[in-house]
Each structure stands twice: as structure tokens, then as C-alpha cells.
From TrEMBL, chain A:
Its main location: cytoplasm. Belongs to the TRAPP small subunits family. Sedlin subfamily. PANTHER family: TRAFFICKING PROTEIN PARTICLE COMPLEX SUBUNIT 2. It comes from Callithrix jacchus (White-tufted-ear marmoset). GO terms for biological process: endoplasmic reticulum to Golgi vesicle-mediated transport. The lineage of its organism: Eukaryota, Metazoa, Chordata, Craniata, Vertebrata. Coiled coil: none annotated. The keyword Endoplasmic reticulum applies. This is Trafficking protein particle complex subunit 2-like protein. InterPro entries: Longin-like_dom_sf (IPR011012), Sedlin (IPR006722), TRAPPC2L (IPR044760).
UniProtKB/TrEMBL annotation, chain B:
CDD domains: TRAPPC6A_Trs33. GO terms for cellular component: cis-Golgi network; endoplasmic reticulum; trans-Golgi network; TRAPP complex. The gene is TRAPPC6A. May play a role in vesicular transport during the biogenesis of melanosomes. The keyword Lipid metabolism does not apply. This is Trafficking protein particle complex subunit 6A. Keywords: Endoplasmic reticulum, ER-Golgi transport, Golgi apparatus, Phosphoprotein, Transport. The lineage of its organism: Eukaryota, Metazoa, Chordata, Craniata, Vertebrata.
Length: 145, 159
């Protein structure tokens, strides 16, 4: 299960960032910020390589001693970053991919909401607006233990 | 097939509503109405640009994005593909549709040529919005030589 989930806009500012409240949030914000460099590196590497297919899922960005950070880029250059607890070794690649797919689907739903202005932060202040997105992220962050 | 007709009716009603209050608004009012239609199309295009390429792999270059517009976007909205795509390889693309579904019910030939731009504004905005989500700033204009065929010209803005 994810410990922190972030959605970063094309211009590299956060649209949505949420972490489990037990930890120091600032640490996660910093980790997400540093992971953006790695994401940019991967995107430019993909651009230069003469590979026919370019995947949206970027895979493991970098591991630290406690956490692993995964990344995903959409066609509209919106980045999703997920921080996962290292001790949770049961999480396989497929599960991470499916979590990103759910995140992408929810983000698309938010984008199609006519009350949402693209570029705004995703907040669940108004009833319809970020509530579904929030709930989806909550379901991904329920602690295992 | 009922889905296609629903959008056509909605679009016709949108255009009719904007011109209902003042059938001859003069150039200022006319531009205002066209801008309104174009902005509505822009927002819809932004949402579609996010939703439609979801299962596709990342686009490698501009031409891929334009091809996506001509095939997948047009197919999703108008149930047909764009008839031709031309480019001068310097940032200008001309997309040609020989029987544009929103113009088909109007006329065939030169009748109502002056009214045609009203029915193209929304689609211009749609193209611009989809391009914007996919990372390309552009200016989209439309021209009609003879109904129901029309051409959309996309000029990429390089900063």
C-alpha cells in the first residue's frame, strides 16, 4: 500500500499530494520533489532512444533505505509519483501498475468534470469535485497492518 | 447510432441559442459569440485530450499527435476519420474533411456559406483544446469552400 501519492502538473507544480499522517509530511514532499528530476531524466532518455513503443509506466525511480519511489507519466505530461514502504515486499510490479492505472482513471474523471479548471489543485472542498479522487487515493493508502 | 445525433442536435441548439437574442449582432457581437463557442469547444477538447489517449503509448512527436487527432479523436466524436492531413513540415497542418457531419444537414454546395463559420467554431476549439492538453500550443482556424467539406488549419505556436 502506498505511503504517499502525488500528482504533478505539466509545469512541475503539485496538483495533489497526500501522505499517511503518521509520518513527517515534509519528508515526503521533499522525496517527491527530488523524484521529479529522475522522472525528467527518464522521459528525455525515452525520447532519445529509438524504441518504437514508449510506455507510460516509468517503474522504480529510486530506492532509499526505507522507501521505494515509483513514477508514471501520462500523454499530457502529468506525472504521478507513488512512495511505497520498502518493508512491504509483497507488492509486485503488476500491483503498482494497476494502482497507477486506477489513479490515471480517477484523474481523467476529475479532468472531465466541468466544474474543474485544468491547472487547479484537486481539492474535495466542493462535494462532487475531488471527493471521488480522494476516496480512491484513500483506498490505496489503507495500511496493511 | 442515436448517440451521434444527440450531439448534432445539442450543437445546433448551442449555435441557435447564441444567435437567438440578436440575429444580426454586427462584427463585435459575432466575434463574441464565436469566441464563446470556441472556448466551450476548448474545454471539451482538454477533457477529451486526457481521456482518449489513455490506453495508448506515449506520443513521440508532433505528427503522431496530429494523426491521433485525425483518426482517434474524429472517430470518437464524428464516427469517421478525417479525410486528409497535409503539412508543410514547418508547423502548419491542414486537416480536410470532405463531408463534415455538423455541416451535412445544412446544404450541399454554396448555399449558406456565410453561416458555416458559426458551425465550425466549436470544432476549432475542440482541436485547440486537445492539442493543448497534449502539450502543443496552436491556433486553429477553419475555412469552407463548399459545404459540406471544410478545412481546419492548425498553426503550431513556437515560443
Amino acid at each position: 500500500m502506498a505511503v504517499c501519492v502525488a500528482v504533478i502538473a505539466k509545469e512541475n507544480y503539485p496538483l495533489y499530494i497526500r501522505s499517511t499522517p503518521t509520518e513527517n509530511e515534509l519528508k515526503f514532499h521533499y522525496m517527491v520533489h527530488t523524484s521529479l528530476d529522475v522522472v525528467d531524466e527518464k522521459i528525455s532518455a525515452m525520447g532519445k532512444a529509438l524504441v518504437d513503443q514508449r510506455e507510460l509506466y516509468l517503474g522504480l525511480l529510486y530506492p532509499t533505505e526505507d522507501y521505494k519511489v515509483y513514477g508514471y507519466v501520462t500523454n499530457s505530461k502529468v506525472k504521478f509519483v507513488m512512495v511505497v514502504d520498502s518493508s512491504n515486499t509483497a507488492l509486485r510490479d503488476n500491483e503498482i501498475r494497476s494502482m497507477f492505472r486506477k489513479l490515471h482513471n480517477s484523474y481523467t474523471d476529475v479532468m472531465c468534470n466541468p466544474f474543474y479548471n485544468p491547472g487547479d489543485r484537486i481539492q474535495s472542498r466542493f462535494v462532487c469535485l475531488g471527493r471521488a479522487f480522494d476516496n480512491m487515493v484513500t483506498s490505496m493508502m489503507i495500511p496493511v497492518c | 447510432m442515436a448517440d451521434a445525433v444527440l450531439f448534432e442536435f445539442l450543437h445546433t441548439e448551442m449555435v441557435a441559442e447564441l444567435w437567438a437574442h440578436d440575429p444580426d449582432p454586427g462584427p463585435g457581437g459575432q466575434n463574441m459569440n464565436l469566441s464563446v463557442l470556441e472556448s466551450v469547444g476548448f474545454r471539451v477538447g482538454q477533457a477529451l485530450g486526457e481521456r482518449l489517449p489513455r490506453e495508448m503509448l506515449a506520443f513521440r512527436e508532433e505528427l503522431d499527435v496530429l494523426k491521433f487527432l485525425c483518426k482517434d479523436l474524429w472517430l470518437a466524436i464524428f464516427q469517421k476519420q478525417m479525410d486528409s492531413l497535409r503539412t508543410n513540415h514547418q508547423g502548419t497542418y491542414v486537416l480536410q474533411d470532405n463531408s463534415f457531419p455538423l455541416l451535412l444537414p445544412m446544404a450541399a454546395g454554396l448555399q449558406y456559406l456565410e453561416e458555416a463559420p458559426k458551425f465550425l467554431a466549436f470544432t476549432c476549439g475542440l482541436l485547440r483544446g486537445a492539442l493543448c492538453t497534449l502539450g502543443i500550443e496552436s491556433v486553429v482556424t477553419a475555412s469552407v469552400a463548399a459545404l459540406p467539406g471544410c478545412k481546419f488549419q492548425v498553426v503550431i505556436q513556437n515560443s
